[in-house]
Structure prediction request, 207 residues.
Amino acid sequence: MYRKDNPNQLKYENYYRYIKYLKAIIAVYFCVFSCTETYGKTKTIFDDFYEGNLRIETTIAAGLSYEDHSDRKGDYYFADSIEYEWPVYKPMSMGIRYYPKFIYLQSEHEKGQSDTVYAQACGFVFRFYPNKNFKGLFNEIGSSLMWNESLYNYNASHINILTEIGIGYKFDSKLHLSLKIQHISNANMKSPNYGINGLALSLGFTF
Prediction:
């Protein structure tokens, strides 16, 4: 019999919800980007994998203000990432991104103490280049699994998901600049789960 106050029941529900979330992300990625018909031939996302480039990026961001515990006004974070990006098909690209350093500065800990969260993350990112030469204006969407050493305010999990969507510009010099909205939460695996929303500015270079 289902009971809301049953901790085991709630735990399993959270895990199922998390699995559904991951399945949804994977389904969207592969439905949109897995293959396309090009000149009568099916092309998969890995056909041009060895034609990719390394991409490094530094990000600075500020937390956004809300009326509940998701209020992150006064919070700031910094991140460095390295990525391998390759063409999927013009004008799309795909990347495997790793954040070796993610430092989140909380303005105030929920117990009244200042606190800094150190994290790492790894995941996928997809980009759309309207110019079809993988330069100029681009849009991007990404999702990464994050492990944080300490806890974010009002978030009970050491494992979270970083999702991001943004717009940017890649210059002929191989420098790029992008503006992103980022979200961090644990997909309700643990409670509380007040998410983090941030506005981020990124500067990077492609080798």
Observations:
- Confidence is low (pLDDT under 50) at residues 1-12, 33-40.
- Residues 7-33 form the longest helix (27 residues).
- The longest strand covers residues 92-106.
